[in-house]
Amino acid sequence: MIRRHQDVGPVAKLVEEFHKLPGIGPKMAQRLSYHIIRMPNSEAASLAEAIVGVKDRIVLCSVCHNITESDPCNVCSDSTRDSARICVVEEALDVVSLERTGAYRGLYHVLHGVIDPMNGIGPENLKIKSLLDRIKNGTVTEVILATNPNLEGEATSMYLQRLISPLGILVTRPARGLPVGGDLEYADEVTLSRAIEGRQEF
Fold first, then answer.
1. What is the phi/psi pair of residue 60, to 5°?
2. β 106-110/142-145 pair status
3. Contact 74, 68 (CB under 8 A)
4. Cys bridge to 147: 45, 153, 169, 181, which one at CB 3.0-4.6 A?
């Protein structure tokens, strides 16, 4: 019995760790765990190496807070980008989604979340101060608030708009081609592209 308990231990631990990931329920955590058990040792080692590598090599850009291997990131260090425009997004995945469209050639700012009082997240927990510092340098003329079109995203956009508009900066938002309650990372490229190109003043 003791030997069997020891055999189950690592599996249960793996299931538990997968279950901690966003969007992974108990059943999916079990399926992922047993998939890893069945895969060759070389593939499992490669997966583990990739996870450790991400944690060792990835940092946040000191300018826009996007995830990157170099600081500043490729977008912030690209002199061909339009430095007069900053697109504010919730998460780094949103930058990836917008970059795929090719419709936007300005800079970004990643908040790393939204204002969500129910979960104890206030403005002080987001990358808002550094955004205001960037805006106040005098070169930015437009800020695009591309938060997700849900309750928390809208509340965050409204909060930022009240801070930024008095500075004389044009504040816009993507056109309403995005579905209410949807996330930018799941929107298709055509919808995102049209939303950015048809952005409206906040």
1. -95, 135
2. unpaired
3. yes
4. 153
CA dihedral 192, 198, 199, 200 (to 10 degrees): -150
pLDDT in tens, 92-136: 999 999 999 888 999 999 999 999 999 899 999 999 999 999 998
Domains annotated for the chain, with CATH where assigned, are 2-57 (1.10.8.420), 79-201 (3.40.1360.10)
**Sole residue written with tokens 């339009």:** 82
Residue 94, Cβ neighbours under 10 Å: how many? 24
- Residue 133 tokens read as 């510092």
Burial of 138 (0-12, 13-18, 19+ CB in 10 A): exposed
Percent of the chain with pLDDT over 70: 83
For 28, the token pair is 């999916």
The one-letter amino acid at 118: M
